[in-house]
Amino acid sequence: MDKTALIMGTIKWINDTFVPRGLKPIEDLPRAQPGQGEACVIARILRTHPRWPNASVTSSFIHLNIDGIEYESAEQDIDMPEEIRQFIQDFDRGEYPDLIE
Q1: What CA–CA distance (Å, rounded) separates 6 from 84?
Q2: Which of 14, 37, 42, 77 could form a disulfide with 56, with the two C-beta atoms 3.0–4.6 Å apart?
Q3: Do 9 and 38 meet the contact criterion of CB atoms below 8 Å apart?
Q4: Furthest-apart CA pair in the chain: how many Å?
Q5: Is the Cβ–Cβ distance between 61 and 80 less than 8 Å?
Q6: Model's pTM, two decimal places?
Q7: Long-range contact pairs involving 91-97 (C-beta distance under 8 Å, separation at least 24)
Q8: What is the pLDDT of residue 57?
Q9: Tens-digit pLDDT profile for residues 43-64
Q10: Integer Cα distance of 88 and 96 in angstroms
Q11: From CA 37, how far away is CA 91, in angstroms rounded?
């Protein structure tokens, strides 16, 4: 999958997964810090939701802090597809320089 398709797929997945939970829809990805679970691209987006100010992301799951309770994505029925994991790993390796702050 090429990088543009992976970015578009990530945006679609975030909107499909988190907009029904109250996140405002996104049109693009923010600049962020590779290897920082609290400051990665997806965490930056999730942290814009008032109930998820402490969200963090690893290459395999998402931690949401909902009303002071930590949940792993599996417990919230949030599935992170393989292409999203691939995007996170590629971003952490610096393969998306336009998204690195």
Answers
A1: 8
A2: 37
A3: no
A4: 38
A5: yes
A6: 0.86
A7: 91/32, 91/34, 91/40, 91/41, 92/34, 92/35, 92/40, 92/59, 93/34, 94/34, 95/3, 96/3, 96/7
A8: 87
A9: 999 999 988 888 888 888 888 7
A10: 10
A11: 12
DSSP letters for 25-50? P-SSPPPB-TT-TTTSHHHHHHTTST
Alpha carbon distance 58, 26 (integer Å): 20
- Concatenated DSSP letters of 79-91: ---HHHHHHHHHH
Per residue in 59-101, pLDDT tens?
888 887 766 555 554 445 566 899 999 999 999 999 999 999 9
> Which amino acid makes up residue 72?
E
Q: Which amino acid is at 73?
A: S
Dihedral of the alpha carbons of 19, 60, 42, 29, in degrees to the nearest 10 = -100
